[in-house]
Write a structure and sequence with these properties.
The chain is of the alpha+beta class and about 325 residues long. It is built from 7 helices and 12 strands. Strands 1-8-11-10-9-12 form a 6-stranded antiparallel beta barrel. A 4-stranded antiparallel β-sheet has the order 5-4-2-7. The radius of gyration is 42 Å and the shape is elongated. It starts with 14 loop residues before the first helix and ends in an 8-residue tail after the last helix.
Amino acid sequence: MCSNIQIQCRKNRCPVFNHINHSIRSAIPSRASIAGLLLTAGLMGFCSDGFAQVKLKSSNLHSGRLHSGRITRSFTEPVEQSIAASAEAGIVAESSVKEGDIVKVGDPLATLNRAVLLESLEIAQARAESTARLDAARSQLEMLTSQVEAVQSLVSGGHTSRFEVEQKQAEYHTIYAEFHAAQDELRLNKLEVDRIRAQVEDRVIKSPINGVVTEIHKQLGENLSSNEPQYATVVRVDELKVRFYLDADTMSSLSVGQQVRVLVGQDQDPSPATVTYVSPIIDPDSGLGRIDVKIDNRDLSIQSGIICFWSDDHLHNSNAELQSDKPQNVIQR
């Protein structure tokens, strides 16, 4: 406890102490006064500690020392990380990559069993290419169209009845409906081909990002289910992300896109970085806010997970440059 904090806990200033002391004196016999005094001393210490803690917190709050810490030690992370998963359940039938391979967006990572779907696709394609029903309906429609025109021409001469004309027209409308049904069926067969082809494509697991395959979760012959659809982890490390928690004064001098300097590794090698995020929120309990920076790592010289430190040197240099840019008042005597 700080030496500059003086604790005064007197009987007339501590109602809790007065009440407990009176209760002890009235309840404990005179021969047990020593125990009562010991208990009273303990309670006095409790009251003193409580008041001291309140006074200490109050003094720290007014002096600004409560929010003096900063988290300037962190580590590098991949700028992007994704776990490639399967949209369909099935058994891994083919693996296209291994751990450590560099992949691009859309590159195949693995293929699930799809023999049944491929057979269904061939059947659907055969149905979509078959136009027999449509051709038959078209021929009947053309024939009935000619018959209706011929019957209608015979009505005016009295060579046929009105009933025969209406009968031919009904047959025409029936064949016309069958012709459109054949067209609709052909269109649905083509849509079925597209649906099965999409299912076949869904059974090919592709890389969602550019990066490196760091872990393969399933091997050949293992099953991917809806509960465990993950196949491989892909990370992008050509850029690395580092997260710090700094005080409000430091964060007020930073902005997105600003160039800063961080110290990488145990040797604390300086490395340029770019600010990508400055949190608009300061935590009231710690007085700190989050800031993210990005390190260019196209040569892959820095590994992910390396320790990293925040450096204020660039801030001091920037302030010095601003001071030097200000015009100086020259006093002539």
